[in-house]
Amino acid sequence: MTQTDPFMTTGGPAIKFDTPGQVLSIKVREATEKVDTDPATNAVKTWPNGDPKMVYVFDGEDEQGEPVSLWVRGNMVKAIREATTTAGLKSVIDTKVTVKFDALGEQANKALKQPKLFKAKVEKVAAAPAADPFSDDEDEF
To answer: For the whole prediction, is pTM greater than 0.85?
Structure first.
């Protein structure tokens, strides 16, 4: 995926972390911030003060070059930010982000699920190649 225009971006299926020990990677080509919603009701998630909760969406490619999205929220935000800083980088664009679902944390409240704890590694990769709008391989308009 080389497009960064939100009109043209299609993203890919979301990366899911179901099992502790699971490790997945994405070459991040675009990062956006969106208002977080409840998947069951589509209602906006809010903080106790009423402000909307936000989620970061990384779009890019998996190890096989297929389009994927990584929805970054909760403990994953901290893990990726720390890994980005450790790598000496200031952005996750054009990086390979590898995330490990490390363990389940302590349940703070019986009404809440156990939090997922993550570890991350961020490495710089080459920028996505730019498309040539006048390539001979395409039909003329």
So the answer is: no
